[in-house]
Amino acid sequence: MFRRPFLETLSPSDRETLNARMTLRSYDKGEMVISVAEGGRDVYFVLEGRAHALLYSSDGKAVDYREIGAGDMFGELAAIDGQPRSASVVAQDPTRIGRLSHAAFQDLVDNHRTFAWSLLTHLSTQVRDMTGRIFEYSTLVVRERLIRELIRLAGGDAIETGPAEIRPAPTHFDLAARISTHREAVSREMSAMAKQGLVVKRAGALYLHDIAALRALCPPEDWRP
């Protein structure tokens, strides 16, 4: 299902109010925006670039929970429940971010019904996406999880057949973090798919030559919530 970025769901008046109350800051690639377990209840909006929400295990393994693209928000859980941050967020590109104070966020929720409804829709989408990922981790082998993730990165349900392009090409380490496995397993599966002519890396991009053939290697997606 196509997911609209949060900012695109806002009415013009809500977007104008939000823009007037945000403070802007640019982050370099790899720079930490917020850290797991830290305090703070401000809410953030990616205006340009992209960021990742992730956690690291005790042995240094990265678990990538979510890519946050232009138009998306993060930090809303702490703003709602007052608990510490549940994940770290790191800029994956040079990224421009708008920061909204907790007081301003609460005012928007309390006094702008359409903003509150957009927030509820955003939260339900996150729950559905997380439910789907838990199901994948529990039932699919590495190759199947990897194929699902590649198709999502290429455009998801909007891509029926192919070819499709993922730019910039994700590293095997990044893909492993996204599907809860290790880099060696991703490298092995990517090599096998390259030999079959299904994927090729060229000029900084990853090309998926036949989306239909890739989908055929996975169970049907009727389970999806």
Please, how many helices?
A: 8
Distance linking N and C termini: 11 Å
- The helical percent reads 40-55%
**Strand elements, count:** 11
Shape: globular
The string of secondary-structure elements, in order, is HEEEEEEHEEHHHEHHEEH
Largest sheet: 4 strands, antiparallel
* Beta-strand residue fraction: 15-25%
Q: Radius of gyration over alpha carbons?
A: 18 Å
Would you identify the regions where 5 or more consecutive residues have pLDDT less than 50?
none
- Average pLDDT level: 91
Strand order of the largest sheet: 1-8-3-6
Which class do the helix and strand fractions yield? alpha+beta
List the helices and strands and how they pair.
Layout: H1 12-21, E1 23-27, E2 32-34, E3 43-48, E4 51-56, E5 62-68, E6 73-74, H2 76-81, E7 88-91, E8 95-100, H3 102-111, H4 113-139, H5 142-154, E9 164-166, H6 172-179, H7 183-195, E10 199-202, E11 205-208, H8 211-216
Antiparallel strand pairs: 1-8, 2-7, 3-6, 3-8, 4-5, 4-7, 9-11, 10-11
Helix pairs in contact: 3-4, 5-6, 6-7
